[in-house]
Design goal:
The complex is a heterotrimer of chains A (131), B (330) and C (340). Chain B is α/β, with parallel strands linked by helices and 330 residues long. Chain B is built from ten helices and 14 strands. The relative contact order of chain B is 0.14. Helix content of chain C is 65%, strand content 7%. Chain C contains eleven helices and four strands, in the order H-H-H-H-H-H-H-H-H-E-E-E-H-E-H. Chain C has a four-stranded antiparallel beta sheet. Classes of the chains: A mainly alpha (131), B alpha/beta (330), C alpha+beta (340). Chain A: It comes from Streptomyces aurantiacus.
C-alpha cells in the first residue's frame, strides 16, 4: 500500500491518507490482518509530516477499520469490500459494459464523470454535514 | 509508532532537559544588519514538532539559528535550547545545525568530512549520514570545494543528521535543491522525526508546502513574532468572512467580528480575514483558508495582533475565547 | 543554570579527529614548513662540514694566524663568512615569517571563511578545538625548529669549542671567527625552538583577535619583530656581568667566548664612565689628560662563557611564559567569541 499525497489539492493530507486507505479497503487491496505501512515508511516516501499519518491512522481506528497494536504496527480490522466491488463480480462487470458503451457512443472522460456524479447524488445523497 | 525520545536522548536526559521545550524565548532580541531584526520575542517550541520558521529576509531567521547554535549570544532576552544555555556542553551534542552558507572544509573530501563527523560526535550514525549523501549522488571521494551548492547542502545535512540530534536547526534546507532531492531529503527528515521524535526547526520561503511538512509555525516579520502555534490550530482559528455592503462607501465591518488581520474590498464585496471570529452576523459567507493564505496575510500586515501559543492576546476579547478550537495535542 | 558539562573528556577518537582536522586545514603549510626545515637542516649540516674543513685548511696554510702569514691568510674563508655573517639575517627574521605565515592564518583563515562553525557545532568544545589547532601546528613548528636548530647549534658549539683549543687550530678558530657577541643565542639550543613557538603563538592570538587573514599577517609580523627586538634589548640585563679592571687606560684582554657588553674607564672613586674627552695625541699626552679627569684605569664588562647556558635557559623561560600567556588568552577568548 503506497499513499500518494496530492501536494496542492485542497484536501488535507491526512484526509487523503484516510480516503486512499478506505479506497483500498473497498477494492479489496487491503484485507483484514494486513499491516498498514509504518508512519516512517509513509513519510519517507511521501515527504509529509509524521503526525499526518498518525492522525489518519487514529481516524481509521476511530472508525473501527484498523487496530494499532503497541510496538507492532497498525493492522486492518475490517474490510469495506462489498461483494459487488471485486474484480469479476457481476456488478462490476455491468459497470464495465456500461463504460464500454459510453466510450463507443463518443463520451469523453469528463462527460462520464459528470454523468456518474449526477446519478451518484441522486442515488446516494450526501450527508448534510459533510465537510 | 509513537515517537520515542530516541537513543540520543537516553543517556543525556536529566529530568529538566527531558521535558524542557525545544526552544523557549523570553523577551528575545536580535540585532540585524540595520537595527533590531527581532524585539521582545517570546515563544515556545514544544518538543517533537516540525517547525516552519517563516519571515521575510532580514527578519532574523538566520540570527535565531546562530543564537540557538550558540555561536553568538542573544542581544536581549533569553533563548533556551532543550532547557539549556545555547552552545553549552550539555546541549552541543544534541543539536544538529545547517547554516545558510553551509560551512564545510573545501579541501576535504566528502568521506573526510563524514569521518570528521564520526570522530567528533559520540552518537554518530554513519549509515544515516551516508544515506543522505547517497540520496544526493554525492561521490564520497569528491572534494567538497568542487561540489554543487545542492550537493554541499546534502553533505552539510548529512553531518547534521549523522549526529543523531534531538533538535535540528535548518536554515533554508531545501533552498538550493532540485525537486527530486528536495523530496528525498524532506522524506529523510520526516523519517527522522517519525522514528526518533526529533524536533526540526526549518526556515523556509516555500509556503505552499509548509502545511504538508510542518505542524508548527513560527512567523516573524518587522521585528515581531506574529505566529507561534500549531499549524492546524492556526488554520482552524482563521476564517475569511465576506460581507456584502449596500453601498460601496458604507462602513464595513461589524465591530464584534473578531481580531481582524486583513480586510479587502472590491465594490460592494468586502472580505475580512479574521482570527477567532466571534460573530458572523451579517456575513454573506464564511470560508476557511489555506495555511499559505493565512501566513501571507500576516506577512502583508505585520502590525497584526500576534497569535502565540501559551500567551493570551492582548486585544482578544476575553469572553468566548475559542475553547471551542480544540488545540491539537501531541 | 548549573548543569554538569556533558561533553566528555576528549576520547582518543575525538582527540584524533580534532588533530586530523587541525592538520588537514593547514596541510599545505605544514608540509611546506617541514620540507623547508629538512632542506635547511641538510644545508646546515653540509655548511658545518664546510666550516670545519675551511678552518682546518686555514690552520695548515697560516700556522701562525693573522700576524705572520702569506697574503691568502688576510681573507676569512667563505664558509666562515657564511656562518658568521650571511646566516644571521635569515635566522633573525625566521620568527617573523613563522608568526605571519603560519601563526596568523591559524585561526584567522577559518574565522574569515566561516568554517569554524563546522567544528563549533560538533560535539566538542571550542576550547578543545583551539587546543588541537595550537598543539598540531605548534608540534609541526617545534619539529621544524628542532630540525633547523640542531645543526645551527652544532655550528656554534664547534666554533666556541674551537676557540678554546690550543695550537694552530685554536689560533685558526680564534682568528677566523673573531668576535663573540652571543647574537646566535636565540637561534640555538632550547631558545631556538622557543622563539619560533613564541612567534607562532603571537600570530595565532592576533589572528583569533582580528579574524582577518591579511591584517593578522601584517600585525603578526610587526609584533613578532617588536618582541624579538625587545628580548634582544633585555638580554644583556638579565644576568650580572663580570667587570674586569686595569690600572691603566689600556683595556684588559678579552676573555674568549665571553659576551663583551661594553668597556670604559674607571675613576679614582671606583665609578665608571664609557668615554672621556681627550684629544688624540701622544701616549704621554693622553695619559696626562686622563689623569686630569681623575681617570685611574679602564674596565670591560663581560658575560662569562659559563653564563651562556643560564642566559639561554632564562631566555627560553621568558619565551615559554609569554607563550603560556598567549595560549591562555586564546583559550579564554575563543569561548567568548561571538560570530555570525
Amino acid at each position: 500500500m503506497e499513499y500518494r499525497i496530492e501536494r496542492h489539492s485542497g484536501v488535507a493530507p491526512y484526509q487523503q491518507i484516510v480516503q486512499q486507505t478506505k479506497q483500498a479497503l473497498r477494492l479489496g487491496q487491503l484485507l483484514p490482518g494486513d499491516k498498514l505501512p509504518s508512519a516512517s515508511a509513509v513519510v519517507a516516501a511521501a515527504a509529509v509530516n509524521p503526525n499526518t499519518v498518525l492522525k489518519a491512522y487514529r481516524e481509521l481506528e476511530r472508525e473501527g477499520l484498523v487496530d494499532t497494536r503497541q510496538g507492532r504496527g497498525t493492522f486492518v480490522r475490517a474490510s469495506l469490500a462489498q461483494p459487488g466491488t471485486q474484480a469479476g463480480s457481476p456488478l462490476r462487470d455491468g459497470l464495465r459494459v456500461w463504460m464500454a458503451t459510453a466510450r463507443a457512443d463518443g463520451l469523453e472522460r469528463e462527460d462520464v464523470a459528470a454523468l456518474l456524479a449526477a446519478e451518484l447524488d441522486v442515488f446516494f445523497p450526501r450527508p448534510v454535514d459533510a465537510r | 509508532m509513537t515517537p520515542s525520545s530516541g537513543p540520543a536522548s537516553a543517556h543525556h536526559g536529566d529530568d529538566a532537559s527531558a521535558t524542557a521545550p525545544a526552544l523557549e524565548a523570553v523577551g528575545l532580541g536580535l540585532h540585524g544588519r540595520d537595527g533590531w531584526a527581532l524585539r521582545d520575542g517570546s515563544f515556545t517550541v514544544p518538543r517533537g514538532r516540525v517547525v516552519g520558521l517563516v519571515g521575510p529576509n532580514g527578519a532574523g531567521k538566520s540570527s535565531l539559528v546562530a543564537v540557538a547554535a550558540g555561536l553568538r549570544p542573544a542581544d536581549a532576552g533569553v533563548l533556551r535550547v532543550l532547557g539549556h544555555v545555547p552552545g553549552s556542553p550539555a546541549v552541543l551534542p544534541r543539536i544538529g545545525t545547517l547554516f545558510q552558507d553551509r560551512p564545510l572544509e573545501r579541501r576535504f573530501t566528502v568521506a573526510e568530512t563524514l569521518r570528521l563527523g564520526r570522530d567528533l560526535n559520540p552518537n554518530w550514525n554513519d549509515a544515516a549520514a551516508r544515506a543522505i549523501v547517497d540520496n544526493c549522488d554525492v561521490p564520497l571521494k569528491a572534494r567538497v570545494g568542487r561540489l554543487s551548492t545542492g550537493q554541499r547542502t546534502c553533505v552539510a545535512l548529512a553531518l547534521a543528521l549523522g549526529k543523531q540530534p534531538d533538535l535540528l536547526l535548518l536554515d533554508e534546507p531545501m533552498a538550493d535543491l532540485d525537486p527530486q532531492r528536495r523530496r528525498a531529503l524532506t522524506g529523510a527528515l520526516m523519517t527522522r522525526a517519525a522514528e526518533h521524535g526529533t524536533t526540526i526547526v526549518m526556515s523556509t520561503h516555500t509556503l505552499s508546502e509548509l502545511h504538508l511538512v510542518c505542524d508548527y509555525v513560527l512567523l516573524t516579520a518587522r521585528g515581531r513574532i506574529l505566529i507561534a502555534d500549531d499549524t492546524e490550530f492556526v488554520q482552524a482559528a482563521h476564517s475569511l468572512i465576506t460581507y456584502t455592503c449596500p453601498a460601496p462607501a458604507a462602513p464595513s465591518l461589524p465591530p464584534q467580528a473578531g481580531t481582524v488581520i486583513e480586510t479587502r474590498r472590491s465594490g460592494r464585496v468586502h472580505t475580512a480575514l479574521v482570527c477567532f471570529p466571534l460573530s458572523t452576523e451579517g456575513a454573506a459567507s464564511t470560508s476557511s483558508l489555506s495555511l499559505e493564505e493565512i501566513l501571507l496575510a500576516y506577512l502583508r500586515n505585520p502590525q497584526a495582533s500576534p497569535l502565540i501559543a501559551g500567551s493570551t492576546r492582548d486585544d482578544a476579547p476575553s469572553a468566548g475565547t475559542p475553547d471551542s478550537h480544540e488545540r491539537p495535542t501531541q | 543554570m548549573n548543569t554538569r558539562p556533558r561533553i566528555p573528556r576528549p576520547t582518543v577518537r575525538t582527540a584524533a579527529g580534532l588533530a586530523r582536522l587541525a592538520w588537514h586545514q593547514h596541510r599545505t603549510a605544514h608540509r611546506t614548513v617541514l620540507a623547508l626545515a629538512v632542506l635547511a637542516a641538510a644545508w646546515a649540516l653540509w655548511e658545518h662540514h664546510q666550516l670545519v674543513t675551511a678552518v682546518e685548511h686555514w690552520a695548515t696554510t697560516c700556522p701562525n694566524g693573522l700576524t705572520d702569514s702569506p697574503p691568502v691568510c688576510d681573507h676569512t674563508p667563505g664558509a666562515v663568512r657564511t656562518v658568521m655573517e650571511q646566516a644571521h639575517p635569515p635566522l633573525r627574521y625566521l620568527p617573523v615569517a613563522v608568526g605571519a605565515l603560519l601563526g596568523a592564518p591559524l585561526f584567522a583563515q577559518t574565522l574569515q571563511d566561516g568554517t569554524h562553525r563546522l567544528a563549533w557545532t560538533q560535539s566538542v568544545s571550542r576550547r578543545q578545538w583551539a587546543v588541537a589547532k595550537l598543539c598540531v601546528t605548534g608540534g609541526v613548528t617545534a619539529l621544524a625548529a628542532l630540525l633547523l636548530t640542531a645543526p645551527v647549534t652544532w655550528w656554534w658549539y664547534t666554533i666556541r669549542h674551537g676557540r678554546t683549543a690550543t695550537g694552530p687550530i685554536g689560533t685558526a678558530w680564534r682568528d677566523s671567527t673573531p668576535q663573540s657577541d652571543w647574537s646566535y643565542l636565540p637561534y640555538t639550543g632550547p631558545a631556538g625552538v622557543a622563539h619560533l613557538l613564541l612567534a607562532l603563538t603571537t600570530g595565532a592570538a592576533l589572528g583569533l583577535l582580528l579574524r582577518r587573514v591579511l591584517s593578522a599577517v601584517a600585525l603578526s609580523a610587526a609584533v613578532t619583530l617588536a618582541l624579538q627586538t625587545g628580548l634582544e634589548q633585555l638580554r644583556p640585563h638579565l644576568l650580572t656581568p663580570t667587570i674586569e679592571r686595569t690600572s691603566s687606560v689600556v683595556f684588559p684582554n678579552r676573555t674568549t667566548n665571553a659576551w663583551h657588553l661594553d668597556q670604559g674607564y674607571t675613576h679614582a672613586d671606583g665609578s665608571l664612565t664609557e668615554t672621556y674627552n681627550c684629544p688624540p695625541g701622544s701616549w704621554e699626552a693622553v695619559q696626562r689628560c686622563a689623569r686630569s679627569q681623575h681617570i685611574t684605569g679602564s674596565y670591560i664588562r663581560n658575560l662569562d662563557p659559563q653564563q651562556f647556558l643560564p642566559l639561554q635557559w632564562l631566555d627560553t623561560a621568558i619565551c615559554l611564559t609569554v607563550i603560556a600567556l598567549l595560549a591562555t588568552f586564546c583559550l579564554v577568548h575563543v569561548r567568548r567569541m561571538k560570530t555570525r
